[in-house]
Amino acid sequence: MSHSKRILMPVLALLLAVVPLFCSLGGLLFARAAVSTPPVLTAPAYILIEQSSGKVLHGHNMYQQMYPASTTKIMTAMLALENLQLEDSITLPDDFINVGETSLGLLPGATQNVEELLMAMMLRSANDAAQAVAIGVSGSEEAFVEQMNARVAELGLSHTHFVNPHGLHDANHYTTAYDLAQIARAALDNPDFCRIINTESCTVHKLNGEDDFEVYNRNNLLTQYELADGVKTGYTKQAGNCFVASATNAEGMQLIAVVLSSENIYDDAQALLEWGFDNFGRTLIVDANTVKGSLPVLNGGREQVAVLTEKPLYFIGASEEAADFAENIELPASITAPVHRGEVVGALTYTDANGDTYSTNLLAAKDVGKYSLKLVVRQSFQSVWQVFVVPFS
């Protein structure tokens, strides 16, 4: 590489780091009619969002403080999957006190498999399974609750506060339809979570060391609505009937509906989801693994590394007009070796005319080791091999 190129590359990267790169991506069209009137629901607070972007499609009283009941277990399951292996086992302490209500009847000293506990918690809504999971993750329910609220803060949510892992009523245990939708959105990024919530039934083996116990999914929307694929129901006297529902259409667009204190959770949720699919669609903005430039590497075996998009981004809308976007690439001026393939090195954000944003990480496309004489010799040998040996093999 020439001396001038060595100077220009870091300068270019620095410009990308501090100056948003704007471009027009016109021509993304939806051949759809104007948005129809939303359905009338029985729930006093509800919301509909698109999963990949988190974009709010419709809502009413979505920031009103409400009680979540057993939809709390979405957060409990997410933390368990982030911190435990499915094949792990959890042994309950001798001072374990079962909170009762809907439960497996777990006893002190019982040892149960994590995956089966999650199935019992998300399908049957077993409160003691949620207690067991909390103990398995954090050592105690109190410590787990701290972790729940810390995760809420990480998600940027400010109207949710948990005091237990199961959702039994407490005046200080609350959320909003908006926050609950965003918690579900994060949980649905986990394939194991999606598989569990869409399971019809599961056997809990040797419950309390004795007989097997069968648990069944209480989410009736899974059989009522063919597009449904989650998530969790809940009920307490104070919360009323609550439901976080998800469904995915043939285009791969997944919607999340939250209905709180509803008189008919399944009809409300299905009406909201169907309205969403009838009125909104998605168009690909950028695919996963798309090259979005390169980054200079300091002290590396390579002078630069390509950067790729981590996931696809979709425009969610109902307009028949072209959608224009501003593209913002955030990269540092350089990165120091070693660089690992898949390492997060920057971010890519598109902003549409309505101010909605669509973001993904930018990842290093290859491993780049530290510069060394040994590395130079090995790369030289590989180059010679490719030029003189491979063509004749």
TrEMBL record:
<feature type="active site">
    <location>
        <position position="125"/>
    </location>
</feature>
<dbReference type="GO" id="GO:0071555">
    <property type="term" value="P:cell wall organization"/>
</dbReference>
<dbReference type="InterPro" id="IPR015956">
    <property type="entry name" value="Peniciliin-bd_prot_C_sf"/>
</dbReference>
<keyword id="KW-0961">Cell wall biogenesis/degradation</keyword>
<comment type="pathway">
    <text>Cell wall biogenesis; peptidoglycan biosynthesis.</text>
</comment>
<dbReference type="Pfam" id="PF07943">
    <property type="entry name" value="PBP5_C"/>
</dbReference>
<keyword id="KW-0732">Signal</keyword>
<dbReference type="InterPro" id="IPR012907">
    <property type="entry name" value="Peptidase_S11_C"/>
</dbReference>
<keyword id="KW-0645">Protease</keyword>
<dbReference type="GO" id="GO:0009252">
    <property type="term" value="P:peptidoglycan biosynthetic process"/>
</dbReference>
<comment type="function">
    <text>Removes C-terminal D-alanyl residues from sugar-peptide cell wall precursors.</text>
</comment>
<dbReference type="GO" id="GO:0006508">
    <property type="term" value="P:proteolysis"/>
</dbReference>
<dbReference type="Pfam" id="PF00768">
    <property type="entry name" value="Peptidase_S11"/>
</dbReference>
<keyword id="KW-0133">Cell shape</keyword>
<comment type="similarity">
    <text>Belongs to the peptidase S11 family.</text>
</comment>
<dbReference type="GO" id="GO:0009002">
    <property type="term" value="F:serine-type D-Ala-D-Ala carboxypeptidase activity"/>
</dbReference>
<dbReference type="InterPro" id="IPR001967">
    <property type="entry name" value="Peptidase_S11_N"/>
</dbReference>
<keyword id="KW-0121">Carboxypeptidase</keyword>
<keyword id="KW-0378">Hydrolase</keyword>
<dbReference type="InterPro" id="IPR018044">
    <property type="entry name" value="Peptidase_S11"/>
</dbReference>
<feature type="active site" description="Proton acceptor">
    <location>
        <position position="73"/>
    </location>
</feature>
<dbReference type="InterPro" id="IPR012338">
    <property type="entry name" value="Beta-lactam/transpept-like"/>
</dbReference>
<protein>
    <recommendedName>
        <fullName>serine-type D-Ala-D-Ala carboxypeptidase</fullName>
        <ecNumber>3.4.16.4</ecNumber>
    </recommendedName>
</protein>
<dbReference type="GO" id="GO:0008360">
    <property type="term" value="P:regulation of cell shape"/>
</dbReference>
<dbReference type="InterPro" id="IPR037167">
    <property type="entry name" value="Peptidase_S11_C_sf"/>
</dbReference>
<feature type="domain" description="Peptidase S11 D-Ala-D-Ala carboxypeptidase A C-terminal">
    <location>
        <begin position="280"/>
        <end position="370"/>
    </location>
</feature>
<feature type="binding site">
    <location>
        <position position="232"/>
    </location>
    <ligand>
        <name>substrate</name>
    </ligand>
</feature>
<feature type="active site" description="Acyl-ester intermediate">
    <location>
        <position position="70"/>
    </location>
</feature>
<keyword id="KW-0573">Peptidoglycan synthesis</keyword>
